[in-house]
Design a protein that fits this description.
By secondary structure, the chain is an alpha/beta fold. Helices cover about 30% and strands about 15% of the residues.
């Protein structure tokens, strides 16, 4: 049995795109991400996307578009904060609330999970 229960991946700048937001339909994965995800899935890993997408609350994209895109990439679950920083919500990273949602939904021990991200907010959420 594998000691890692799940791997959480940030979207923008981590699995593809760059340091700006690319909305669904214009976002592409980095080379080898799809094959890496397939190898991890074959090892029994639960793959979870967790992402801040403030463009949703600003009407620039729909949450369902992000969900469909990330499901098509092969994620087992998708956790999205649709709020802008000025909304002062409780789910936006660096809050660990998205991780806690996954913990409850999938009966995870977060100390047996891995977070992969490219920003300080990803790492603060993981540390909390």
């Amino acid at each position: 049995m594998n000691s890692i229960q799940a791997i959480f991946f940030d979207r923008d700048g981590t699995i593809g795109g760059d340091n700006t937001v690319h909305y669904p339909g214009t976002f592409t994965l980095f080379p080898h991400v799809a094959s890496l995800m397939e190898r991890l899935r074959n090892q029994g890993m639960l793959l979870i996307a967790f992402t801040n997408q403030p463009g949703i609350s600003k009407g620039l994209a729909r949450e369902e578009e992000f969900r469909t895109e990330l499901q098509d990439f092969g994620f087992d679950d998708i956790l999205i904060c649709p709020h802008a920083a000025e909304d002062h919500c409780t789910c936006r990273k660096p809050s660990p609330n998205l991780l806690w949602q996954a913990q409850a939904k999938h009966d995870l021990r977060l100390e047996q999970c891995v977070v992969i991200g490219d920003r300080w907010s990803d790492m603060v959420a993981a540390a909390r």
